[in-house]
């Protein structure tokens, strides 16, 4: 506490700046006092440490553990004092100059008074007084200048010793005190290093293991204290460097450095790595039922402070705790993944957590991508395509499928790399198989699609809406008509789950779009797999003109070599074909159904574009409700994406060649106008009732928020539909 108090005052007083109106003498006196107090503290602590060790050695008594740890703490405090002086070295240099100048002035004043007395006593002139006068003049000349050098200081001391015979006891004591201060100021930095030197630790290395173990187990460990302790250990190298034999000096230095590092590594670094690994495992598996992890019941290290600390300097070695932990985790993750490939995800999660939370950097494991955990298997999805499209939601921009709901605490996803892994496992032939299954699935779904549009209640309402649109002067499909159609279809009946026929029709379109999204992802996965395979091929275009079989035959090499060249030619040819060929599966799926859809026998399908306003309105309302459930505790039915609907709408419009018909409705423009009108009306009502009723104002604000949310979802649907049309080589003339 005493040293801590001194450090605070030292930091404050040494950094103290003042203007000319302040008494500078008081400032210098305060700075002199705090400097002297620091030196006195250093002297007291180092004496205490050395005496304690020496007395135990002299008496042959073992030192108690708590006493030993107290000595280590005192060593760290001692190096803290040294560090404080070194940090303030720039500020101390002018202060020491001022203090030396001030003390010199005081001594010069005393010498001047002494000189006056000697000269005044002319009657008692003698050679002794002449010597005194000469000593005063010489001492004054030595003090009159920059900070004393050693020769000038010695000469000044001799002169003052001669002068002391002419001074009173009080003046001698005062002069002695001032000269001691001058001597202190001339070698203050050397004095600090001497009083904080801990080279005695070289002969007391048994303390290292106890200190490092205690530092690991202590709940109040401070990484700066560890840095101070290593600074104290580094003083031993100054002692070792006094050895005149170069070979022995290098040997002793290497032995001490290695011994200390190995002790630190075994007693602290390895243990902190194991502890950190355990902590990462507990956090990654926090969804499991673990023991009580309360920080009040178990010791938790401050890993953040340790891992963000600067490297510790120890002679010529920099000990970085962060780098050591990174290497340990890299090695651990690699070794354990090679032993149990199915656990790779756990170790990746641990490394990602360490990177995100503590800023650690890791190298890639470079393990092969073919692992036992490949995500969902494409072949299994193809066999159960009807289950997959109903349980998963498609995201158009990220090309991924995400599970709707699950009994587990996580949702499965299907990414392009999962598809690439499956293709790598089963071969490229799986693509054609998947397209065939897709065709069979679409046939069944389009049969239900046709039945819905052929139903008399639906068909008559669509014809009625189209007639109203064509006869009206407005060139935009009215929002009210779509809303009315939604309510009318709902009146036809509901399922046990509370779904209307229009909800089921929307789901049907989404499932059709999901299966097309799956085909698109399959093609992207194939290209991803091919690109990974051709990474090590220099240039596919040049290799088409090269035949390794011919080259090995021309060189008259062995039959096995020629066969190897033939196999290489076959592999390169396959890679080139898979990478460059681009079968348009969307075009195949359009061509196979387009003729049937446009046949006069299926004339009832021509009204499909007329039901899209009501269907899109139903879709947007459903998606808003699903997104709102994301923030609730009960997340049944929650979702944030369903681009399968936009994909399905674009595909069916392409089959029926109704893109222009749908564009003629100007549906999205009509929606924007309707919502803007309602928002303006709500704002007007809010302005009128601003000071009348608080509840009415809140209701109006909620209405505006709901309308803005509705408008945003319609815009997102419009963008998704535009993106989907691009995939089918059809773009709208304009997008509002």
TrEMBL record:
<dbReference type="GO" id="GO:0016197">
    <property type="term" value="P:endosomal transport"/>
</dbReference>
<dbReference type="Pfam" id="PF14745">
    <property type="entry name" value="WASH-4_N"/>
</dbReference>
<dbReference type="InterPro" id="IPR028283">
    <property type="entry name" value="WASH-7_C"/>
</dbReference>
<dbReference type="GO" id="GO:0005768">
    <property type="term" value="C:endosome"/>
</dbReference>
<feature type="domain" description="WASH complex subunit 4 N-terminal">
    <location>
        <begin position="2"/>
        <end position="198"/>
    </location>
</feature>
<dbReference type="InterPro" id="IPR028191">
    <property type="entry name" value="WASH-4_N"/>
</dbReference>
<dbReference type="InterPro" id="IPR028282">
    <property type="entry name" value="WASH-7_central"/>
</dbReference>
<dbReference type="InterPro" id="IPR027307">
    <property type="entry name" value="WASH7"/>
</dbReference>
<dbReference type="GO" id="GO:0071203">
    <property type="term" value="C:WASH complex"/>
</dbReference>
<dbReference type="Pfam" id="PF14744">
    <property type="entry name" value="WASH-7_mid"/>
</dbReference>
<dbReference type="Pfam" id="PF14746">
    <property type="entry name" value="WASH-7_C"/>
</dbReference>
<dbReference type="GO" id="GO:0007032">
    <property type="term" value="P:endosome organization"/>
</dbReference>
<feature type="domain" description="WASH complex subunit 7 central">
    <location>
        <begin position="200"/>
        <end position="541"/>
    </location>
</feature>
<protein>
    <recommendedName>
        <fullName>WASH complex subunit 7</fullName>
    </recommendedName>
</protein>
<feature type="domain" description="WASH complex subunit 7 C-terminal">
    <location>
        <begin position="561"/>
        <end position="729"/>
    </location>
</feature>
């Amino acid at each position: 506490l005493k040293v801590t108090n001194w450090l605070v005052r030292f930091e404050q007083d040494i950094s103290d700046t003042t203007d000319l109106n302040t008494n500078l003498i008081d400032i210098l006196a305060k700075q002199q006092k705090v400097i002297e107090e620091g030196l006195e503290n250093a002297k007291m602590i180092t004496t205490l440490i050395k005496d304690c060790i020496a007395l135990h050695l002299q008496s042959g008594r073992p030192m108690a553990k708590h006493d030993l740890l107290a000595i280590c703490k005192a060593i760290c405090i001692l190096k803290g004092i040294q560090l404080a002086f070194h940090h303030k070295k720039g500020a101390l240099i002018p202060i020491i100059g001022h203090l030396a100048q001030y003390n010199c002035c005081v001594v010069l004043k005393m010498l001047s008074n002494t000189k006056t007395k000697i000269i005044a006593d002319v009657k008692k002139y003698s050679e002794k007084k002449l010597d005194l006068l000469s000593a005063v003049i010489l001492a004054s000349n030595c003090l009159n200048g920059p900070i004393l050098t050693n020769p000038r200081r010695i000469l000044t001391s001799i002169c003052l010793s001669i002068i002391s015979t002419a001074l009173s006891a009080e003046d001698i004591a005062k002069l002695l005190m001032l000269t001691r201060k001058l001597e202190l100021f001339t070698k203050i930095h050397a004095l600090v290093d001497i009083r904080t030197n801990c080279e005695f630790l070289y002969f007391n290395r048994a303390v290292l293991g106890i200190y490092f173990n205690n530092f690991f187990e202590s709940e109040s460990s401070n990484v700066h204290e560890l840095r101070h302790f290593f600074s104290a250990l580094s003083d031993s190298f100054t002692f070792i460097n006094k050895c005149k034999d170069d070979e022995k000096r290098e040997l002793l230095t290497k032995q001490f450095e290695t011994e200390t590092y190995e002790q630190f590594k075994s007693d602290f670094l390895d243990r902190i790595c194991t502890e950190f690994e355990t902590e990462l495992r507990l956090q990654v598996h926090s969804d499991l039922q673990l023991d009580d992890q309360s920080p009040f019941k178990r010791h938790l290290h401050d890993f953040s402070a340790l891992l963000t600390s600067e490297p510790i300097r120890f002679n010529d070695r920099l000990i970085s705790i962060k780098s050591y932990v990174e290497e340990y985790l890299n090695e651990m993750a690699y070794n354990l993944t090679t032993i149990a490939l199915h656990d790779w995800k756990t170790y990746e999660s641990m490394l990602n957590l360490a990177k995100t939370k503590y800023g650690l950097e890791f190298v890639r494991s470079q393990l092969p991508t073919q692992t036992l955990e490949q995500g969902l298997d494409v072949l299994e999805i193809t066999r159960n395509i009807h289950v997959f499209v109903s349980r998963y939601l498609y995201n158009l921009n990220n090309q991924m499928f995400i599970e709707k709901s699950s009994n587990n605490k996580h949702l499965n996803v299907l990414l392009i790399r999962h598809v690439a892994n499956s293709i790598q496992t089963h071969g490229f032939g799986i693509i054609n198989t998947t397209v065939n299954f897709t065709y069979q699935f679409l046939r069944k779904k389009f049969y239900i699609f046709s039945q819905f549009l052929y139903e008399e209640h639906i068909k008559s309402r669509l014809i009625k809406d189209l007639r109203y649109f064509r006869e009206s002067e407005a060139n935009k499909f009215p929002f009210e008509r779509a809303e009315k159609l939604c309510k009318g279809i709902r009146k036809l009946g509901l399922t046990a789950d509370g779904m209307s026929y229009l909800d089921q029709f929307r789901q049907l379109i989404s499932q059709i779009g999901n299966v097309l999204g799956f085909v698109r992802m399959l093609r992207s996965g194939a290209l991803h797999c091919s690109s990974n395979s051709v990474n090590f091929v220099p240039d596919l275009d040049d290799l088409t003109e090269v035949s390794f079989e011919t080259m090995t035959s021309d060189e008259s090499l062995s039959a096995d070599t020629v066969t190897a060249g033939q196999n290489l030619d076959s592999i390169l040819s396959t890679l080139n074909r898979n990478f460059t060929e681009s079968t348009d599966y969307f075009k195949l799926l359009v061509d196979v159904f387009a003729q049937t859809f446009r046949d006069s026998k299926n004339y009832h399908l021509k009204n499909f574009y007329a039901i899209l306003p009501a269907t899109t309105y139903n879709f947007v309302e459903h998606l808003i409700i699903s997104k709102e459930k994301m923030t609730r505790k009960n997340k049944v039915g929650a979702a944030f994406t369903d681009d399968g609907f936009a994909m399905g709408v674009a595909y069916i419009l392409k089959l029926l060649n109704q893109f222009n018909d749908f564009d003629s409705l100007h549906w999205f423009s009509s929606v924007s106008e309707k919502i803007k009108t309602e928002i303006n009306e709500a704002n007007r009502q809010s302005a009128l009732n601003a000071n009348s009723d608080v509840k009415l104002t809140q209701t109006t604000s909620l209405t505006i928020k709901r309308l803005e949310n509705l408008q945003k979802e319609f815009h997102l649907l419009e963008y998704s539909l535009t993106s989907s049309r691009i995939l089918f080589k059809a773009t709208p003339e304009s997008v509002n």
